[in-house]
Amino acid sequence: MLTLPIKRRWFNLILEQDEKKRKFDEYRSFNGYWGKRFATALNFKNKEELDEHIRKYGKTELFYVKYRNGYSAQSPYIIAIVSLSIGTGKKEWGALQQERYYVQHIYDIWEVRLRSADRQ
């Protein structure tokens, strides 16, 4: 499972109960670093093969991502079921205008840990 750091603001918006305020997409720069990480997580040979698959089908199959708010193993996290596409993002969710991203579409939350004692 791919583990990605996420800022508290975006972490909280993904967990938001009000659907009008909830964040349904998470972004990573469309570059070699993130392309390689996503390709490895999704069992593609390389970034180019991943990008070609997305161009052909529009997005990837569903997979799990752990969004961790911090770098410690004790940090709060969300395990989400997502798919991946390439596109632009929403400014209110942290994207820059006209910038291309790997867009992680969040379909469902599988597990949440807010603190080591909190399990949901």
Helix-strand category: alpha+beta
Query: Percent of residues in helical segments?
Result: 10-25%
pLDDT < 50 runs, ≥5 residues: none
String of helices and strands: EHEHHEEE
Enumerate the strands of the largest sheet in spatial order, edge to edge or round the barrel: 1-3-4-5-2
Count of domain modules = 1
Provide key terms for this protein.
3 helices, alpha+beta
How would you describe what is shown here?
With 120 residues, this protein is of the alpha+beta class. The chain has one domain (2-113). The chain is built from three helices and five strands; from the N terminus they run βαβααβββ. A five-stranded mixed β-sheet has the order 1-3-4-5-2, sandwiched between helices. Helix 2 (32-41) packs across helix 3 (47-57). The longest helix has 11 residues, at 47-57. The protein is globular, with a radius of gyration of 14 Å.
